[in-house]
Structure formats: structure tokens, C-alpha cells
Specification:
The protein is α+β, with helices and mostly antiparallel strands and about 600 residues long. It has 13 helices and 30 strands. The longest helix has 25 residues. The termini are far apart.
Length: about 600
Amino acid sequence: MKNSINNKYLLIVITLFVGVLLGWLIKPSANLPEQPPVHEHVESTVGASSVYTCSMHPQIRQGEPGDCPICGMDLIPLENDSQETDPLSITMSPTAIQLADVKTMVVGKGKAEKTLRLDGKIQVDERLLFTQASHIPGRIEKLMVNFTGEYIAKGQTIALVYSPELVTSQEELLQANKIKEEQPALFNAAVAKLKNWKVSEAQVQQILTTGEVIKNFPIKANVSGYVSQKFANLGDHLAMGQALYEVSNLSKVWVLFDVYESEIPWIKTGDEVNYRVQSIPGEIFTSKIDYLDPIIDPDTRVASARISIANPDLKYKPEMFVSGVITSSITGAEEAIVVPKTAVMWTGTRSVVYVKKISSQGLSFQLREVTLGAALGTEYLIEAGLHPGEEIVVNGAFSIDAAAQLAGKPSMMNPEGGVAMSGHNPGGMEMTKASQIEGSIGNSLTQAAKDGLIPIFDHYFKLKNALTIDDLKRSISQAEEMLNYISNIDMGSFEGNAHMEWMKYQKSLSVSLEKIGSDKSLEEVRKTFLSISDEMIGMAEKFHPFPKPLFVQHCPMADTNRGADWLSMEEKVVNPYFGKSMLTCGEVTRTIK
């Protein structure tokens, strides 16, 4: 009984001791900081959620990833740049850079070379072009050379002419010969009169020996060559000095290349040209330019670059078509900064690029104004604004510029920067797609922007007209003029959505027009013209700048029977895809008013 009571007390003591020990272990330390409530952490996470925008339409903002309701591009996160140390630079996350497909290159010095494609023809060397004239007046009794292209040799009789004046002079010579001893001066005067009519000494002696006049007097060829033009026919009456034939000596010929006004600075005397003659396939010839025409033709706006070549076996014939290639550089620009055209953005008055910067705060891009030099095909010569070793954006510059505009940083259209665009409800859209696309572009387009767009349509119609008459040379020339105009259009006249839309059209048209410069056949040009027409139709429907109705015409047989459209100012169909072979193929499908 006593042992049972002792065990009970022992159990109670042990239980109390264990309870005190557990309480001491569980008690929080007075030195530990108080933990923040869990709900505060959740709120901060929600507050840091990204806002997504479109690189081409920065007014679009929503709270989750997706596609732009205007152009369908992937939305990119709008980064918080409050920690940037450089107020003039724009930062982008690696995700945004990847979505915008940003590519860069390091600027360095290189040769400012340009490869030019020249077209021309073989022509007669003007220094070997002669006119065969009659030295006596009279009537043509016989022609020995009767057609163009016939060869004549120097001294050959080419015609017989009856001349009453020459017959009288011969009779005077015979009479003077009878009194030669008494009046030698009279005899000498009669001989001199005949020689003034190119009567040779042998012919004079023949008249004196036979005592008879030559009634049908022979006209001798002064030079050797081929008759390139025939000016007289049998029975014609000739005046003294009147031309009978034009004679071309083809032992040497010229190759005359057409040089457009914009290409003249790249070509100089002594440059080497590799050329092909269309009628001599498989052969490449090389010569040097020996003369550059100092005068530009006012109608075609081209000058001529000339090379002289020997032609002993008459392989080269006048009017043969020739195509040449010349690689040249501007004097003084052998070592210069050259960048791709895709790196440069234009505003009409300024040219800008984005320079990549890396600092302790991370990667950023800074807007830089540059001075452009000559265009080198797909590249530009940079006169000022960049230095070797700097890294610039060559793809995705428009996306970076859109992000800069959103952040209120200096951008292409706003070099001073400004208040960041606040957008609208991140969780939804305040404007419908229709209002974003049509509502503010056609109606709110400034008059200056419309005035700038109308010449583009004028250039387009000239290009179309050149294709309708199968004129390759004029087509390439018109495409170059259209490209030059588009490259220099004032982008400052486009506001709001119109600005972004115009940038897309400008880029697409420039790529297609540049391609025409390298196209070598009408088929290639017409294939490229299809893309240009699609852009022009879209631009006409988007902006409505043209004061007159435009007709969209369609040919079902174009583009290998897939069909193709084009714009026209008239309802009458004149097909640019087939030209003279099927000039009226097609129909009007709609009218843009």
C-alpha cells in the first residue's frame, strides 16, 4: 500500500518536469524579429505583375500575355525602368529582346564599295563614222552601192553622175589645151577648176589624151567601211557636197553604258567593267572606262560611260545589248563606317540608330542620330554619329523605339523624350479593333501626310505603265525613283496610329523596290511588282489619300494562274503582268473611293 502511494507521487513529479521542459523549448526567443504577415507578401507579388504591350502599337496594354488585336504580333512585357541610371536609355528584359528579335553588330571600318549593274548597247565609234558626198552637181545615172550594210572599199566607184557643169568644164579644158603655148595661164585655170571638183590627175590626162569629155563621171569612195545609211537613189539630182551614204568603219566600236544620276559618284574613268554581250552567251569580257559623259540626258536622267574595244573579226555589232558589273568606291571613302540599311530609321529630316550599352545596371539601348552618306545597295555609308567598336541594333529597332516612346524616353519621332504613355486599363481593352484600325487613320490623317503619300501612287503608276509596254529598263528606273522618294518622305507628318502603320508600309515597299534593282528580267520584276501592288492596295484602303477613285483590277492568269491584283486610275484594264502579250486580260474587282 505504501509502495503504491510512493509510485503515484513519483509519476506526478515526472509529468510536471516533462511539461516544464516542453514549455521552455516551445517558447519563442525574445531576440528573433517578428515575421511579417503572409498576406502582405501576397499583395506585393500581385503589385509586381507585368503589363504587356505590342511593339508596333504601344497604345495596346493588358495584364496577361497574348496577341495584339490589331496586327496579331505577340505582346511583350512592359518593363519597369525606374532603376535605370541613364535617363536617355531604354532597357528591355531578355524575354522582350527575344520576342522583338533584336540583333546587333559591332561597327567597324571597311571599304565603302558598291557593286553597280549597268545596261547598255554597242555603238559605232563616232571617230570612225564618215559621210560620202558628191563633189559635183548633177543627176545620178547609176548606183553601184544599193543597200544599207554593203561594204565599200576606198577608191571604189560607187556612182556615175551626169553633170552639165562638169561637161562644160571638160570642153573648156580641151579648148585651152589647143592654145596652151600662147595662153598657159588659161590652161592652168581650166585644170585647177576640174581638180576643185575632185577630178584626179589621171582623169585629166585621160580627157586630154582621148580628146573626149566624160559624160557620166564616176564618184569614188573616200574611205572603207559599211554603209550605215543611204541618202540617195537612182535618178536623184544632187547639189555639190550632198551626202550619198554614211559609212561606218567597224574595226573599233564603243560600248555605251547608261549611268543613273545617283550612280555617277561611284563611276570614274579607269574603272574596270566585267560585261556580257547578250548575243554572245557564255563569255565574259573585261575593259576599262575611258570616258564618262559630263552631261545628263534631260529626258532619261542618265549619262553614258564608254569603253572602246577592237573589233577585227566584226564579233561586236552595233545595237547589241550589253550588261556589265562594276565594283567601285567613292574617292576618299576607302576606309569608312558602313552599316546595314535595316539599322537605320528615317523621319524625313533625321536618320537614327540604336546603340547597345552595357553597364552594372544591365543592358540598355540609346538613340543616336547619324549622318548618312551614299547608299551601298543593302548598306549605308555613315558620315558622322558612330565610332568603330560601338554596337548597334540591326534588327528590331522599331520595337525598341516603340518601347522608348512608351517609357517617355527619346525616340525616333520625339528626340527630346516626354511623359511616359500611361495607356489604359491593363486588364482589358478600351478601344475595339475596328476603331484602332480605321477610326483614327483615314479620317485623322494630316494634310501634310496625304500630300506626302500621293507622289508614291504617281511613282507606282509610272512603274505599272512601264511593265505594260514590256520596258525592263524603264521599270527598273521607275522603281529606283519610287524607292528614293519613299526613303526621304517626312515621317513627322504621320501622327498616332498612322505613324506606326506607315512605318510598316515603308519597310515592306523599300525591300521590294530594292529587289527590283537586282532583277534581271521582266518576269522577275513582275513577280516583285505583285508584292508592291498588294502593299499599295492596302495603303490606299488604309489611308485614302488619293483624291480620285482607284480601281483594283485582277488577272486570274497572273502568278502562275494563282491570280494577282494591281491598282489603276482608269476602269480600262491594261495588264502589267503580261504586257503586250495579253494587255487586256483582267477585270475590275472593286473601287476605292
